[in-house]
Every structure is written in structure tokens, then in C-alpha cells.
Fold this sequence. Notes:
With 284 residues, the protein is mostly beta strands. The chain has one domain: monomeric porin ompg (Porin, Beta Barrel), CATH 2.40.160. Helix content is 11%, strand content 43%. It contains three helices and 16 strands. It has helices at 2-21, 124-127, 278-283, and strands at residues 32-33, 36-37, 44-45, 51-52, 66-74, 90-100, 103-112, 131-141, 149-155, 166-175, 182-191, 217-226, 229-235, 240-248, 252-259, 263-273. The strands form three sheets. Strands 5-6-7-8-9-10-11-12-13-14-15-16 form a twelve-stranded antiparallel beta barrel. A two-stranded antiparallel sheet has the order 1-2. Strands 3-4 form a two-stranded antiparallel sheet. The model is unreliable at 23-41, 121-125 and 205-211 (pLDDT under 50).
Amino acid sequence: MRKEILVFFLSVLAIVQLAVAQDNSAGDPLCTDTGIITGQYRVFPAINGNTGLVMIPTGRFPLDKEIIFCIATNPARYHILPFKYKPVGEKLLSATFAFLPFMEITGTLVRPDNISKQNPDSIDTRWGIGDRSLKMRIKLLNERKIFPSMVFGIHDFFSGNYHQSAVYIAGSKMIKPVTAITVDIHLGYGFNVSKPPFPDTPLFSNGDNLPVSFLNGVFGGVSIIYKTLVYNIEYDCHKVNAGFSLLLLNHLGLQVSTLGFDRLSAGLSYRFIMGDPMIRKRLL
Length: 284
């Protein structure tokens, strides 16, 4: 555990140094929507691909027509896929499409680290290239002066793995305590799709691998934003996670997180906007 914490803080120091080294002439990365701060540039994918913090989803959305590709690591202790023998770490490859202002679609491929090895722990015969997951989020409410932004999400429908399946509502509300710092507060509730009425619906009728969905109950977190550097801390229904995210050159995202404060995860993402590269320039 000491080794993981040391590596985490060394990674954080490297990310902070990169943030300081960036050109500050770009101005405040937070853009506005009807007068309300939306902070689009600090939106990052969670480990499982959808817009969020470390593991949980939030009420935030990418920019309209934005596409985000991400690769992230997940430690064996907090594995997503069921294993017959000893669990192994995983790599998650995801693509998020915000092709409508009110809808986000994410496709995720979960690949165990031993997927190509021929041994009893390998799950090649069950998962092929990896476990495929499809997630959809719909914006219910834009953030206003009093009201938070609200999102309805459904993860991994038509899935045989309850652990990734989820139905939830999440909200996010920003406050700006000082000029240079923005705080984003997130809160959500996930329904247990392994219990009625969900197993009786066509969306979740064939899941039988894990008894409990990951997002099951109350979850939430806080983001502290300084320009393009973000510190996240969250409760994901099971444990407390924390991490840093940094956006470089408006396209490249770096993420380092600690899960349960005893394991590490790292992520790399790249984003661009379809059809209108000038959108990003107008926001700078």
C-alpha cells in the first residue's frame, strides 16, 4: 500500500508541474451557458468510460459534438469482470460521443491483462476480445442559478454482467468560492438492477454473473477546479476514491487516481469536436 501511495503522489506532482507549465494566456477554461458556469473543459471520462470523476458518473456533459477516446487501467482488487480463479487487472478502452446537446453515448471494451495467455485464469473463451459495454446518458435539466444539472443514465443494458449494469440519476452544482477556484458538487442514486422490477424487463433479463450492480445506492463527490487541473474525491457506493485530471493543449487528458486509497489507476484521453474546430477557439 505504501508503494501505491508513493507512486500516486509522485504522479500528482508531475501533473501539477505540467499544469503550471502550460501557457496561462489561454484564459479561464470555464465557458458559460445562459450565464451559468458549466466548466466544459474539466469534463473527463471516468475509468469505465462515461463522463464522471474516478468511478462515478456526474451530471456533467461534454461539449456538443465532442468525441472523447480514453484508455484506463483498473487494478485486480477492484476488477469489473467476474473471474473463476484469481482476479487480474484490466484495461478499459472507451469512446464517448456527445452528438446531441442532451445525449451522450459511450462504448467501452474491458480487456483483462491476461486475455492473451493460455492458462486456467484466462477468460479468452468467454469474452473474446473483451467485455463490451454500452452506456447512455440523457440530460434532464440544465444547471441554473438555484437548480443543479440533472442526468438520467443507463449502463450496460442487454448485458450478462450485472456488475456493469446501472440505472441512475445524477446531479451536479457549481459554486465559485474564489475567483481562481471552482467547486463542483455531485450527487446521485443508483438502482440495484439485479432486483425487481429490473430483471423482469428485456433490458436486464439475462444478467446472472454478479449478484449486485456496482452503482447501487447513494454516490457522490466533489471536484475542485483550477484552470485545466481538477482534483476529484468521491464515494462510489463502496469505497472512497480520489484523483487528479489535467487537460493539455485542449485535447490531451491525463488522469491518475487512487481507488480505495490502496490501489492506483491511470488514464489517457484524447478529445476533439466534430465538424466545427472553431468552437474550441471561440471558447478560449
